[in-house]
């Protein structure tokens, strides 16, 4: 659950202090922790029946899938301004990872995906910080944009959230200045090869949140996201800012639902939009991804917490909950200890697969200063530690989906049979 905060301070939201099990992630975490106590050493991991591997979005074995939009006409080299001038098409994104098919016996790269929920450039400048950090370490990240972060508060009545009053939201609307700074970061992030996905709009959780939404209501939320991001010039009146250099309908191919709620109906809703993946799953072990309902399922993952005493999800809020019971301003005397615990957990999860199955590592965070910003500082260290290692590729979810679609279904199936720490004879897996 979330609470509203003053938009003047530039904060998106805060966890409610001093309350336990207040968010769906936490409830999911509790359930997963119980499960972890009875599954020893990640043996015999269960896979969903719906996770049948597929070669590509186009159905051709080994083709680098690019979704339904791949059949569109080739780019003629000219910038096409779209709609009211808020967006434009400037050709295929430059610098994207080019997928390749593994050769027999080849060890897979170690993919790491850093993703961010909300993507607002606020007074703390965390969006720009991580965009610049990604550039410094030759990484790409996924920034999940919240649609109302490009909608002025004065125009909030344009938002009709499912099951909630017109104009309402569980988060604060941005200031006019923050809309301007966010637009600039979106432009730079895209030009530097990062992915722009969606975190939808009003960030509703719990009762009447995404978990209660029908397929039609999810489609309404998605359509409104597109409307807000494609008509920001109309809605803001800004004429001194150039069009964003990308087409949202081409580039947005996945997202993460607030509080990880509502994936079953969301998966049904997104089929007509040609999306490639969904990152809304409430969690799973560190195993190679599979598809659900024809799209890649990229869940948060269970990592070793406190030197392996238990497993917790790979997101800052879950560290916050376990370390300070959800209090965003816990005991400052413990900040250094908690920061190191967070780094150690991320690195333990990374090392388990880097020296083992090479399953991708997914990390999902928020631009927040919880507990003195220790979770941001932890990510800084992890990016520097892992993105510089041999064989590691820090990529976006979109790039990972492209790479997975280029692999043989039989190879993906064998990869998914590996336990996280299992280091196989790759000649028996990739063949």
TrEMBL record:
In which domain of life is the source organism classified? Answer: Bacteria
Q: Where is this region: Disordered?
A: 1-21, 50-103
Compositional bias (Basic residues) spans?
9-21
Q: Which Gene3D superfamilies match?
A: Glycoside hydrolase/deacetylase (3.20.20.370)
Bias type Basic and acidic residues, positions? 69-81
GO BP terms in the entry: carbohydrate metabolic process
Q: What is this protein called?
A: Lipoprotein
According to its UniProt entry, this protein's organism is Streptomyces echinoruber
């Amino acid at each position: 659950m979330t609470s509203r905060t003053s938009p003047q301070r530039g904060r998106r939201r805060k966890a409610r202090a001093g309350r336990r099990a207040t968010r769906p992630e936490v409830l999911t975490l509790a359930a997963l922790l119980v499960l972890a106590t009875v599954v020893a050493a990640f043996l015999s991991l269960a896979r969903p029946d719906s996770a049948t591997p597929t070669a590509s979005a186009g159905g051709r074995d080994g083709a680098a899938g690019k979704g339904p939009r791949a059949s569109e006409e080739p780019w003629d080299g000219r910038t096409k301004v779209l709609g009211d001038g808020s967006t434009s098409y400037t050709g295929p994104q430059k610098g994207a990872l080019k997928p390749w098919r593994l050769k027999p016996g080849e060890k897979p790269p170690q993919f790491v995906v850093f993703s961010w929920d909300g993507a607002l450039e606020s007074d703390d400048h965390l969006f720009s910080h991580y965009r610049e950090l990604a550039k410094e370490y030759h990484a790409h990240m996924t920034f999940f944009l919240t649609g109302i972060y490009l909608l002025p508060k004065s125009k909030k009545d344009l938002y009709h959230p499912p099951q909630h009053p017109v104009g309402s939201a569980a988060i604060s609307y941005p200031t006019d200045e923050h809309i301007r700074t966010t637009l600039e970061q979106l432009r730079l992030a895209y030009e530097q090869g990062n992915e722009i996905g969606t975190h939808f709009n009003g960030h509703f959780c719990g009762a009447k949140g995404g978990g209660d939404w029908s397929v039609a209501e999810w489609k309404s939320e998605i359509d409104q996201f597109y409307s807000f991001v494609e008509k920001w010039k109309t809605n803001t009146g800004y004429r001194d800012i150039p069009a964003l250099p990308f087409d949202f309908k081409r580039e947005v191919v996945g997202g993460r639902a607030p509080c990880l709620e509502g994936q079953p109906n969301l998966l049904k809703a997104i089929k007509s939009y040609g999306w490639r993946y969904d990152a809304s799953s409430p969690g799973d072990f560190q195993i190679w991804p599979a598809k659900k309902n024809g799209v890649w399922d990229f869940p948060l993952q269970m990592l070793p917490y406190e030197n392996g005493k238990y497993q917790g999800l790979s997101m800052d809020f879950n560290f916050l909950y376990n370390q300070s019971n959800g209090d965003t301003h816990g005991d400052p005397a413990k900040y250094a200890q908690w920061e190191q615990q967070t780094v150690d957990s991320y690195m333990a999860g990374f090392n388990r697969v880097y020296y083992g199955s090479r399953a991708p590592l997914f990390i999902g965070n928020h631009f927040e200063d919880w507990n003195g910003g220790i979770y941001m500082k932890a990510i800084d260290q992890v990016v520097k530690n892992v993105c510089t290692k041999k064989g590691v590729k820090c990529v976006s979810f979109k790039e990972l989906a492209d790479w997975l679609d280029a692999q043989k279904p039989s190879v993906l199936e064998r990869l998914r049979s590996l336990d996280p720490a299992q280091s196989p004879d790759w000649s028996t897996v990739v063949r």
